[in-house]
Write a structure and sequence with these properties.
This protein is α+β, with helices and mostly antiparallel strands. The protein contains two helices and seven strands.
Length: 186
């Protein structure tokens, strides 16, 4: 039994021939039958294992689907490499929005209405890049305050120093500064 058959579930081309030339008598029929039984047993075990893993996954997974007209948040940095130039990524917003869904494209992609500041980006996003927005008037998220650039990063500016203290660490004085940041330079 070849690993190729186990992995791909089909016969492989082999230099071995189980038939005698000139005759149609099968050589080593016992060996072939034993291999076929082993392949069938391995396929059954793989199927059982796949079904078990599928039941584990399906137990907590719920499909994300949106309707046309719903509002969603858009993930700011969909890849880990975007925004590495920034010194601290701890307080960066993960999503911006709320953006309206215009149309469903395929089974897992949506076209969303982007604001003029993001008009140079494509408007179709995978469902994993979107998060449902539940309309609430107490939300104070405004897109015009976050100026997202083409590479999905943005600039922050210091507004004022809120607090300052000096700390002794291993015989050296280190000044700690608490800064209030803003996304616009006004």
């Amino acid at each position: 039994m070849a690993p190729y058959e186990v992995l791909y579930g089909r016969k492989y081309k082999t230099p071995l021939c189980w038939y005698m030339f000139g005759e149609t008598i099968l050589y080593a029929s016992n060996l072939v039958q034993r291999q076929n039984d082993q392949i069938k047993m391995i396929r059954e075990k793989i199927k059982v294992s796949q079904d078990r893993q599928k039941s584990y996954y399906d137990g907590w997974r719920k499909p994300l689907e949106f309707q046309v007209g719903d509002y969603v948040f858009l993930k700011v940095s969909p890849t880990a490499g975007v925004g590495k130039a920034l010194k601290s990524r701890k307080l960066l917003p993960k999503f911006i929005g709320s953006l309206k869904i215009l149309q469903k494209v395929g089974s897992v992609a949506y076209r969303i209405a982007l604001p003029p500041s993001l008009s140079n980006m494509h408007s179709v996003f995978h469902v994993s890049q979107l998060k449902k927005y539940i309309l609430d008037q107490s939300h104070v998220i405004e897109l015009n305050l976050v100026q997202v650039q083409e590479n999905l990063s943005y600039d922050v500016f210091s507004v004022k120093i809120a607090d300052r203290q000096v700390k002794q660490v291993r015989g050296k004085e280190i000044s700690l500064v608490k800064v209030i940041w803003s996304t616009n330079d006004e």
